[in-house]
Amino acid sequence: MSEVSRRDAIALTDALTDAGMGVGANRVFSAARALFNFALEREIIETTPFLRLKPPLAETSRDRVLTDAEVRLVWLAADRIGYPFGPFVQLLLLTAQRRDEVARMTLSEIGEGDLWLLPAPRTKNSREHLVPLSPVARSILDGLPRISGRPGYVLTTDGTTAASNFAKNKAKLDGAMLSIARADAAAAGRDPDGVELKPWRLHDLRRTASTGMAKGGVPIHVVEAVLNHASGTVSGVAAIYNRYQYLAEKRTALESWAGHVSALAAESL
Question: Which among 78, 86, 258 has a CA at the least distance from the CA of 163?
């Protein structure tokens, strides 16, 4: 790694762009930069060739937040399509955690209680994260089939691989949402064929949950704690303290948000 020069890093970014990879070029760049930053932190190398280099392409920040009506449709559609993708989507919405963190959740992480312990290797910032499970989330988890397998995945169909096929299952979810929305329109005397849904991504559920908590009066530092956005490096006793910091506040925030989502799901339009 120490032989990789800044010129090599620039050549990599140029090659990715020339290959027409689009946003994918940024993802490769970010992964390579993270690898060298890790080596730098561990003193494997003395400097990183990615120092002050920017991703090859500028990206537009997404700010899509689902409306209450859309949240209701997501929840009902998730109920309709069932296991494993339906509960997966509902847990994304209730916990506000990242897609792969939820998809690869294991039985050992959630135990039998009301806390989900995400180990450091599974989080984006490599920091252990405690997620309080609302009664609604715990009820969903308790109702899932237990499919045995060495990894112990919660959301799995064969016991060996975690929930996946996100694009295919998201399309199925969108179809169920549209079907429900058109049935609502017909029941209200409107033209169901005129109903259309705005595009959205799974990650938008995380943003929707954080925005919903903030609108509900949750302080921004607590929302950030729920999202595991804390920065900096801690260890030892400080790390243990940090793990439990704002735990009660996070629980109150997530339970209030779950109550809001449940109320929306119960509405009949």
Answer: 86
